[in-house]
């Protein structure tokens, strides 16, 4: 059994849905958990201390250890306060699960700068800020586990979610670079692209998905990725309904010539679009160009 005794975990957005489920699972397996949640509406408006407190109380009632935090991940002060809560209560931070999220769906033509910035602020800026506040502690300890929450909407695009998909693909870049930079300090960072029945998706998914796409079926992967034994870093995993799959950004073999013009490109589209054999790193991409 994968246990988390003596590990301290920050889970953002843990008052509802996926974050709540991650917090309950890690706490049940011995982790000391900071249950962070601003407690606002789905679009990020408003705030309430209720959701974070309820989850922290439930954990404590079940015999686990947890403290609630209602700080906002999207501000530097909020992020520092979340990490401060972990240090004050439990003395360190081993695990950060960046899960807090909001939606402001609109078709691209109607999307305002507030819709765009607001969504990027919580998902991208929030993940950056909370991770950066915890990072010096992880470096010092030579140990850290980070999970960022991407989305199929970011990886593959989705109508009405230009802001959200930009944010969610941004988290893939953050995860990949954290994976590279963290290696020398024992810090592993991975991302998940989940599907689960929560308040965020209940109006979008077919009703019969509720029983199959439980948050617990996502949390199982998160627990695996934040455990000491995790061997992967810089990876992205699709997870939902009991299935887990690696998602990777790959570059096809490409087509090259000494006579690259708009016309030769247009005439070789089939070779340019080929997928196999692919390369997976910037270094191998560069080699293929030489
Ligand atoms: P949810 O609305 O139940 O949970 C999100 C939580 O984040 C809420 O409790 C909310 O109060 C909190 N939050 C929002 N802004 C915050 C802020 N600034 N600071 C602190 N907390 C804040 O939705 P969920 O489905 O559980 O979503 C969790 C994560 O998973 C999100 O990042 C979401 O984008 C992502 N995701 C979910 C699905 C899915 O199928 N449910 C799919 C892809 C990605």
Automatic annotation (TrEMBL):
It comes from the Bacteria. It holds the Pfam family adh_short. Coiled coil: none annotated. Residues 7-197 form the Ketoreductase domain. SMART domains: PKS_KR. SUPFAM superfamilies: NAD(P)-binding Rossmann-fold domains (SSF51735). PROSITE patterns: ADH_SHORT (PS00061). Keywords: Oxidoreductase. Belongs to the short-chain dehydrogenases/reductases (SDR) family. This is SDR family oxidoreductase. It comes from Nonomuraea deserti.
